[in-house]
């Protein structure tokens, strides 16, 4: 680790759509910003991008994130590929971030570390080629196609019923486990044309294009599927949330206000860490809200009447309220003709 401590106004931890959007806003709104990202994440796994207006489906998640990273860097943000080991608030109210390679400080912290989906045991098809994690993104792909849902809980039962809006061939795969849903849900489920398959999966077939064609089961049956949704829950990447003492909800998400503010002043949470739909446009909106709220709390001007009375009028030498680094980045950006 270097002995140098780099100072910022805003530190964003996590480089998915929510974190990168927050950084885009804080940077363009004149605040020195760093994004620290360890890599990976749900968006990076996407083979295609769905439900993002203006982004066509031939754009992968990696391409989307790479373009976003290049965009914020051109505006003047720093992007660091590193792992944040700890965050603590010092006596002056600033936050100190310790990573594998550096020490950083910031006045505001945005947590955008997301969660990991709990994966069922193999055999499984590749993500994006028969294994899908987002009902709202991918259900459209399976109109009139045979679909599976894996799981034993309430969410699995309800997703199986929801998929009947798109296809009349829906199987709910218990994979040898007992169902855990309520009696009411069981009554509801059995009133819908969903086939409940108790036997575990023992094998799988894929086509030449890599897409799932179907599963083999313990009883010797082979069932055709184009794809489906595992519903086994989420593991939140919330170590830093708990280090900082941010309040969490019963489901593990971080309790936040309208702009993503947490119970700890100066700390925001956005994206999949927070309650609501886990969608790229939703995450982007949360990042934008947080970025704007941070700007309101950090911007130098206008000075309040109380500040003017205490400190005097604003001198022309005090403006603009933007760092030299970001001023230079803005000049370079305009010079390319892309403004």
Automatic annotation (TrEMBL):
The keyword Iron does not apply. Signal peptide: none annotated. Residues 8-287 form the FAD/NAD(P)-binding domain. GO terms for molecular function: oxidoreductase activity. Keywords: Flavoprotein, Oxidoreductase. Pfam families: Pyr_redox_2. This is NAD(P)/FAD-dependent oxidoreductase. It comes from Halorussus gelatinilyticus.
């Amino acid at each position: 680790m270097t002995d140098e401590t780099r100072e910022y106004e805003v530190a964003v931890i996590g480089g998915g759509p929510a974190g990168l959007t927050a950084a885009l806003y804080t940077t363009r709104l004149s605040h020195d910003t760093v994004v620290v990202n360890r890599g990976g994440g749900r968006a990076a796994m996407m083979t295609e991008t769905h439900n993002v207006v203006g982004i066509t489906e031939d754009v992968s998640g990696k391409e989307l994130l790479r373009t976003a990273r290049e965009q914020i860097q051109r505006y003047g943000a720093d992007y660091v590929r590193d792992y944040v080991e700890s965050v603590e608030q010092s006596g002056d109210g600033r936050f100190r971030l310790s990573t594998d390679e550096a020490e950083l400080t910031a006045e505001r912290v945005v947590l955008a570390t997301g969660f990991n989906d709990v994966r069922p045991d193999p055999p499984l098809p590749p993500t994006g080629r028969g294994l899908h994690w987002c009902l709202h993104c991918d259900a459209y792909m399976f109109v009139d196609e045979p679909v599976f849902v894996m799981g034993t809980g309430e969410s699995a039962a309800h997703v199986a019923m929801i998929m009947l809006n798109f296809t009349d061939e829906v199987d709910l795969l218990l994979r040898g486990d007992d169902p855990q849903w309520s009696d009411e849900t069981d009554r509801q489920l059995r009133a819908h044309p969903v086939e409940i398959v108790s036997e575990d999966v023992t094998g799988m077939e894929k086509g030449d294009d890599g897409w799932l064609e179907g599963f083999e089961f313990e009883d010797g049956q082979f069932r055709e599927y184009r794809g489906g949704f595992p519903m086994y829950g989420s593991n939140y990447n919330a170590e830093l949330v708990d280090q900082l003492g941010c309040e969490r909800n019963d489901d593990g998400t971080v309790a936040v206000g309208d702009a993503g503010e947490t119970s700890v002043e100066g700390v925001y949470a956005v994206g999949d860490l927070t309650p609501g739909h886990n969608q790229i446009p939703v995450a982007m909106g949360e990042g934008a809200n947080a970025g704007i709220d941070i700007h309101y709390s950090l911007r130098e001007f206008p000075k309040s009447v109380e500040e003017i009375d205490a400190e005097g009028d604003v001198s022309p030498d005090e403006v603009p309220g933007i760092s030299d680094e970001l001023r230079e980045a803005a000049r370079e950006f305009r010079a390319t003709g892309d403004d």
